[in-house]
Input
Amino acid sequence: MKAARIHAYGDLSGVVIDDVPVPEVGPDEVLIRVTAASLNPLDLKLIGGGLDAHFSLAFPYALGTDLAGTVERAGPLAARWRPGDAVIARPDPVRGGAFAEFAVVPATQVAAAPVALPAAAAAGLPTTAGTAWQALFETARLTAGQTVLVHAGAGGVGSAAVQLARVAGARVVATASASKTELVRRLGADQVIDYRSEDFTAAIRNVDVVLDTIGGEIQQRSFAVLRPGGVLASIVSPPDEGLAKAHGVAAAFVFHRTDATRFALAAALCDAGSLTVVVDRELPLTALGAALDHLAAGHACGKVLLRPA
Output
């Protein structure tokens, strides 16, 4: 089969498409024929070695942590899954393997795919919805009636967060470029701030929760819009505890942990018509270099998807 791999840490030029054997299935694992995989900023960090302290990779390393497909075979301890089942999965980042024709994933990291989404689009669900769910509801404890500011509301995690917060009954404010304002409103934002022409710190105050998907100066300035006792949850980098204390708020770094239960809940929301996946573009595996370049440029609207053929 074809699989995208790196043979050492480096830049994007080190990504190659190799011919490799179809992986063997362990007793508690599922072999999935990949319909599509989804790129994440995590992939760029893994390629560059920036997360080696957290995810020490063994080379050659097979890339990819989000996929949708059909079950080809299941081990005896994964008998819940049958050949032909449509599934979504997020392999552990150390293992990877989603950018391939087949992937082996532990059964605990697999969930049934939503029937309401196109099979390829479902590949964009696990990390985006899983991360947004963990940040909003498990870390920040967002509840109905509260106000949340979602940075980059048209991005992968941001677009999922806007929808999940709306379903939860929160008032949703999001930042986005002017060209993406209508999309973010359709996803459920009550207010959209054009980050290129408006200062979000002047446009909103007394926010209960900030979801930081950008980091840097945006993260630091976000403390000023929180109410006393509010929460800033960052999926990018650990927030400054000193700034949090100075503003009388809480701050936390959200390190996404794979949880198939979250995936199943997100899939159910898709089937209920309350959640969708925004797709920026869909490319063949052979165009992975172009897909990674587009992701690295930082302007993808939703998810960039790969098809193995």
Residues 89 and 234 are 23 Å apart (CA to CA). The longest strand covers residues 29-38.
